[in-house]
Amino acid sequence: MKEITKYRNNRILCIGAGYVGGPTMAVIAEKCSDCIVTVVDINKERIDEWNSDKLPIYEPGLDEIVKKVRGKNLFFSTDVENGILDNDIIFVAVNTPTKTFGKGAGMAANLQYWEIIARQLRDVADKPKIIVEKSTLPVKTAEAMERVLNDKDKFEILSNPEFLAEGTAVNDLHYPDRVLIGSRETKNGLEARKVIVDIYANWVPSEKIITTNTFSSELSKLVANGFLAQRVSSINSISAVCEATEADISEIASAIGSDSRIGSKFLNSSIGFGGSCFKKDILNLVYICKSYGLHEVADYWESVIKINEYQQNRFVANILNSMFNTIAGRKICIFGAAFKANTDDTRESPSINIAKMLIEEKAKLVISDPKALKNIEFDLKHYKSKIDYINDPYEAALESHAIAILTEWDLYKNLDYQKIFETMIKPAFIFDGRNILDHKKLFKIGFNVFPIGKKAMLHYN
Ligand SMILES: NC(=O)c1ccc[n+]([C@@H]2O[C@H](COP(=O)([O-])OP(=O)(O)OC[C@H]3O[C@@H](n4cnc5c(N)ncnc54)[C@H](O)[C@@H]3O)[C@@H](O)[C@H]2O)c1
Asked: Of 14, 22, 143, 341, whose Cβ has the fewest other Cβ atoms within 10 Å?
């Protein structure tokens, strides 16, 4: 890559080595072999893990890429300051959780990590830098950060939100539906925009690189997550209607999904969405709407979260009702702790809430998961004495009264349920919170089967 701007465009820094910073930079290093990519983080343990054989996050295909480029043109370090000095293109992928204190608590995004970095950039940077918002941020954050940086000639802030989904991050980064880059539409803004476009142009077709103004880019990310979550809540709301009327949610999903205006993706009914983003980003959108006095719009988006909570409450109520209104002292085995398959991430996982509700009913819990046990154990550390964590699903289900499928891991589709049934206390129950199992087969084995949005199959009346 030739030096054609005031920025050294063959060096890239990313601040924040998490689920976004790590995989995104690994793929940039893989695809831009003439660039040196450095990822920095204040969390030393995380950086040590990125430099080890056991990466800090589980993501299919990521190990191979990191092994290929680490030490060649991808580096992980805790030296944020030198990172800033050595690089002019700086992606910032730090966490932006929901604020838990003060104004906007429980809704607004907590921008304290971003602000710390803006101050550090202001104090350390010695020449012009492009600062790229990779984190998901409220609309107009770039403008607010400009005020902190206080030097429009030195810093150009761009928005380049990340649309990867955990579990498929590598594929999403290799073949993105689109890359969105927002900038100011000034001479400097457009120059910086071109530098970032050129990085992605190494592997992303030009028609998939969308450029907008900064505000549209920032808001698009919140809206994309809002729309995805809203689809999940829409189908889940109908699953409740199905259970009341003997309609079948899979038949409905297929009937409506074949309408090309609706499309078939994201129509699986389940215990609802989780993950660090959907709820946080919708709450953020709700907060923004409220702060502009758009209360009806805020209420509309807030209802997406309410339906998600309702769906989890309904799932637990269903367990309770069908197990004769008491689960106290009965062993319930949870299959799946991760918020979705193919990740070890448990942030906002429905498993956390459902486990807590079952414990309130005094059930004895066993949680099993192929990748996420360490994380869920941390999330539920206050319930230590009430939960066993067992990796092997057969061992976990031993002498249990019921199994609840909470993550759609392929592993759970292919277990020997006859063998499991034989080791369980009868009557044995299975609550398929992801609708991934062969319900007729399970019923034939002897289970009482409770899918979502479909008629339950019972051996008793
Ligand atoms: N996880 C996803 O699937 C996903 C997808 C798209 C967008 N996002 C957004 O990307 C952002 C990051 O998400 P994540 O899941 O990677 O978070 P994460 O918590 O996994 O990683 C953030 C990292 O930033 C580091 N950090 C915080 N302050 C720092 C500082 N001052 N200097 C250096 N490092 C610092 C933390 O130590 C942490 O390792 C969030 O805004 C999120 O909403 C996440």
From this structure: 143
